[in-house]
């Protein structure tokens, strides 16, 4: 499942985040790529190991981890640290698949889902579309600031060359409590149904209670917490 989510709706908050990102230091993105990906990766990444970097990291991580749609769609168990990526003219990221495992020791995660949170207005750059291969067809996205694309980490994807301006995004990975994508989709449908029924029915209605029970019992059956 590939999903577009309006993750940060508030323009003030986005502007404040963009201002703070502009003050960070940057390094070549190839330093954090695997050997194969390094050959096709042409970007810069913010150095997050500084006081402002760490503050941004924890604020953005909390925002994404608490987002109800991300929670329902991804059933996150753990998030990777976030990357902030800057791609200028001539940069891009050729077709690749993300590493299956990221991080070391007890912070190592299995990457089930990848996401890109768009931060630059699309009219400020040309090219730079995120292209995701989905069973033979492709999804091509250039999101507005605050929009997030969530997609399977195992799919081949790329960032088309930037031919004008600068593209800034925040990128990260999620290990889901639900390893199987079909089960995850089923739970997402049920969570959406529950949200819609909550708007229509009294909270103690028999229908909602049955749905609560079904969701809880499927989680018990499937989740690796
Ligand atoms: O910049 C993006 O939208 C995606 C970056 C990416 O694919 C990666 O860092 O593995
Ligand atoms: Fe990637």
UniProtKB/TrEMBL annotation:
<protein>
    <submittedName>
        <fullName>Fe2+-dependent dioxygenase</fullName>
    </submittedName>
</protein>
<feature type="binding site">
    <location>
        <position position="167"/>
    </location>
    <ligand>
        <name>2-oxoglutarate</name>
    </ligand>
</feature>
<dbReference type="InterPro" id="IPR041097">
    <property type="entry name" value="PKHD_C"/>
</dbReference>
<feature type="binding site">
    <location>
        <position position="96"/>
    </location>
    <ligand>
        <name>Fe cation</name>
    </ligand>
</feature>
<keyword id="KW-0223">Dioxygenase</keyword>
<dbReference type="InterPro" id="IPR023550">
    <property type="entry name" value="PKHD_hydroxylase"/>
</dbReference>
<feature type="domain" description="Fe2OG dioxygenase">
    <location>
        <begin position="78"/>
        <end position="176"/>
    </location>
</feature>
<keyword id="KW-0408">Iron</keyword>
<dbReference type="GO" id="GO:0031418">
    <property type="term" value="F:L-ascorbic acid binding"/>
</dbReference>
<dbReference type="GO" id="GO:0016706">
    <property type="term" value="F:2-oxoglutarate-dependent dioxygenase activity"/>
</dbReference>
<feature type="binding site">
    <location>
        <position position="157"/>
    </location>
    <ligand>
        <name>Fe cation</name>
    </ligand>
</feature>
<dbReference type="Pfam" id="PF13640">
    <property type="entry name" value="2OG-FeII_Oxy_3"/>
</dbReference>
<dbReference type="InterPro" id="IPR005123">
    <property type="entry name" value="Oxoglu/Fe-dep_dioxygenase_dom"/>
</dbReference>
<keyword id="KW-0479">Metal-binding</keyword>
<dbReference type="GO" id="GO:0005506">
    <property type="term" value="F:iron ion binding"/>
</dbReference>
<feature type="binding site">
    <location>
        <position position="98"/>
    </location>
    <ligand>
        <name>Fe cation</name>
    </ligand>
</feature>
<keyword id="KW-0560">Oxidoreductase</keyword>
<dbReference type="GO" id="GO:0006879">
    <property type="term" value="P:intracellular iron ion homeostasis"/>
</dbReference>
<dbReference type="Pfam" id="PF18331">
    <property type="entry name" value="PKHD_C"/>
</dbReference>
<dbReference type="InterPro" id="IPR044862">
    <property type="entry name" value="Pro_4_hyd_alph_FE2OG_OXY"/>
</dbReference>
<dbReference type="GO" id="GO:0006974">
    <property type="term" value="P:DNA damage response"/>
</dbReference>
<keyword id="KW-0847">Vitamin C</keyword>
<dbReference type="InterPro" id="IPR006620">
    <property type="entry name" value="Pro_4_hyd_alph"/>
</dbReference>
